Amino acid sequence: MTVHGFSPSGNCHKVRLLLEQLGREYRWVEVRSDDGSTRTPGFIAKNPNGKVPMIELDDGRVLVESNAILHWLAEGTGYLPDDPWQRAQALSWMFFEQYSHEPYIAVARFICGWTPLDSPRRAELPVLRERGRMALAVMERHLQSHDWFTGARYGIADVALFAYTDVAGHGGIGLDQFPCVQAWLERVRSTPGFVPMPAPDTVAMRRIDESG
Amino acid sequence: MTVHGFSPSGNCHKVRLLLEQLGREYRWVEVRSDDGSTRTPGFIAKNPNGKVPMIELDDGRVLVESNAILHWLAEGTGYLPDDPWQRAQALSWMFFEQYSHEPYIAVARFICGWTPLDSPRRAELPVLRERGRMALAVMERHLQSHDWFTGARYGIADVALFAYTDVAGHGGIGLDQFPCVQAWLERVRSTPGFVPMPAPDTVAMRRIDESG
């Protein structure tokens, strides 16, 4: 299996993290999502939506959308419960992640690290940060009475939510007000086979540091 | 089962459409999402994310996120394939819908119909419409060689994508350039048990008409 992904992207890292924890073999092909590489004719022929991550099987079939990839990889493993209601709740959190969390927390981080310091997009940051904190508050409330987002055990909803929550600070969204989220992040980091997301490159890190 | 939903919301209508097609009994409780009704303490206690649709079982358990609800309802029925790869592709389209389609096509419609004609949010419409057309182009490309989004048969990915595509015009996004999308909409309307989404009320329809 080949994973096409941009290493500092949380959506891409989700796939890497689960594959590592499953002990699956895979080939990683680096495809930057900030320089047009996901919009070339060759890439668009495989994913008309022009995004990574994308997995490609040896017979050429492709699957896109990070959380759909996680769900497919986890089927039949301990990372997705058997119980239909728990499975539904896990999927619910994964849709929450893509609709109410990632568009704020990941986009704030992208703007801080991967756009110029004078980009007009930086005007979006106050609203993105406010909505990102609203998403974290929803997670905090859940974690006050649950250890995980995937039913009784760590699983793919945790993988999905971990990716960008762990680096929310890159977008200027601190976790001080969210102690249960911080404790959950630490539990995720302690799961067997955990691998951290590669750090942004020095250009991106300098921009993040200068974004306040 | 009780469905808490706002009738002219595509996300809510998805649940109604599938329940009707499955022949399931349910109670519909109207909850407007444009007047704060999903942000009351009573509602937030059930769904901290403050959104409809929400289904509530007779024992009080709740499930949120429209596409997670569809997936749970469809499990074991003909509206979700058995084949793991087809299931994964269906789920991929459902994440596409929530990330790359709904935030543009549904939000453009919401701004046109449910915000005042002088709302500053109307400045967002050109970008929303452009990105909505990009999502429709991705669908058009798929439909040039496939009849459905849920594997070989009509199913929940079609339900998910139908909801807002069918009313894209309310947000000023025409379908003239997308003949395969138009033909697919007609195929969906011809499926057994199909029910159309209730029309917006007269205030919303007048605003839509005046939004050009």
From TrEMBL, chains A, B:
- Write down the PANTHER family for this protein, in alphabetical order: GLUTATHIONE S-TRANSFERASE-RELATED (PTHR44051), HYPOTHETICAL GLUTATHIONE S-TRANSFERASE LIKE PROTEIN (PTHR44051:SF2)
Classification via Pfam families: GST_C (PF00043), GST_N_2 (PF13409)
GST C-terminal domain sequence ranges: 83-211
Keywords on this record? Transferase
Report the source organism: Marilutibacter alkalisoli
Establish whether keyword Transferase is in the entry.
yes
Q: What's a single GO MF annotation on this record?
A: transferase activity
Q: What is this protein called?
A: Glutathione S-transferase family protein
Ranges for domain GST N-terminal:
1-81
